[in-house]
Design brief:
The complex is a heterodimer. Chain A is of the alpha+beta class. Chain A has one domain: Arc Repressor Mutant, subunit A, CATH 1.10.10. In chain A, 57% of the residues lie in helices and 14% in strands. Chain A has a two-stranded antiparallel sheet with strand order 1-2. In chain A, strand 1 and strand 2 form a beta hairpin. The longest helix of chain A has 24 residues. Chain A is globular, with a radius of gyration of 16 Å. By secondary structure, chain B is mainly alpha-helical. Chain B has three domains: 52 residues, no CATH class; 143 residues, no CATH class; 139 residues, no CATH class. Helices cover 69% and strands 0% of the residues of chain B. Chain B is built from 13 helices and no strands. The longest helix of chain B has 42 residues. Chain B is elongated. Classes of the chains: A alpha+beta, B mainly alpha. Chains A and B meet through helix 3, helix 4 and strand 2 of A and helix 1, helix 2 and helix 4 of B.
Amino acid sequence: MIFSSELIKGTLKTIVLKLLTDNDKMYGYEITQRVKELTTDKIQITEGALYPTLHALESEGLLTTETEYIGKRVRKYYSLSPAGKTRTQERISEFTDFMETMQFLLDIKTKLA
Amino acid sequence: MYCITEQQIEYILNDIRRNGVEMEDLQLNLLDHICCIVEQKLKEDDDFERFYHEVIKQFYKKELHEIEEETINLLTFKNYYTMKKLMIISGIVSATAFVIGSFFKIMAWQGTILFLMAAMGIFSFIFLPLLVVLKVKETDSARNKIVLVIAAIVGVLYSMATLFVARQWQGGTALLFATVGTSAFLLIPTYFFTGIRKAETKVNTIVTTVLMVGATGLMFTLIRVHQPLPMQTYTYLKNEQLLRKMQHDSGIQSVVTNKLTMEINSCCEQIKHIILSKDLDEAVVPVDFEQRDIIIHERNVNFPETSNAYQLLAHLKNAINTYNIQIGADNKIPVSHTVLDIPQEDLRKCTNFFVLNSLTQIQLSLFSNEPHPVVMK
């Protein structure tokens, strides 16, 4: 099952920030592939959602960038800024709270490991 | 892994640009992304162009530039609350400056124009643009967005036209014409044909259009379509020429022998210099004023605090009083309804032409008395 883009939209920033916490620097294509791989294709980030989000995070000062020339094309690597690192923690704990609330609200029984 | 060629990279970049993606950063991101997909998934014997067009289709719903629009939306949204706050603050500041400036104007206090200029500047270049950006973002229809932008342009033009006309700066009338033209031929038709199509906005559109036509008509009524010839300038400058001719013909040195006449003449000249230095680049009217198309605009006389105009006028008044006591009844310098008759606090209500002409007439009276020997009592 592939999750709908509506569900992913609200969490895309958190996903990107968390990925960059675990990896020093990443480029757009790499991010989409890593998410696909980690979620066994359940979450597929579209290019139309990823790049606007990356630009927004950069303009908020949460990401820093560096470019690398590969022949005639330029690859833009994204990494977390110090502000980005703090924000990632905040977003993850906010999302954890949100999940707990949703579990309670929708009366979802937590799966036993 | 497929090895992408430089021509293929060029092809992809051109296609991205052709499809309306203008942000360079985004172009390069998309280019690298597509190149990665091509390198990973295209087989050596596959058709590159067909594969590329299949891949790029997955990037959007209708058109590729949606990605750029979404990017801009996200970037604007980040600033949305700051912009809204700034819009409200600038609105309050400009309204306050308008009220204070108007009060200063009624009281005829110094600094009126500073408040009014600040109010118009903030209103036109901060408040209105922010209002339009935020409203455009909230509006879905492209036509309504166009109406909003045109309305803001008319607002800025009107505000600037008012400022230019009030300050008698060059181009004030042209700006007023531009305001009326944009409103009549662009704003009103666009607004009308946008709103009239929908049943729910039809009545409101008709009423607002009538109001807009009325407002534009009133504005047009205020415009002087045919500029009058600058007769006041000619009258004053001709008087000034006559005075110079009389001074020249009589031989100025021999004429101003009397200390009192010298004083009166000198005071008049000095006050005129103070006024003219505001209207002309030079403090004396040049001889070739006609050839140089020199025009003095009518304005209220506002002597700077630092100038000694008030002392000079007081001194002139005393000197003329003494002169009139000494001279025969037929040759007295007329004082009533001249600048000498105006109390100091009312001087700023007088126009520059009134004061200039008064002073030149005093000098003319003085010189018309001169050829005959001064009869002392």
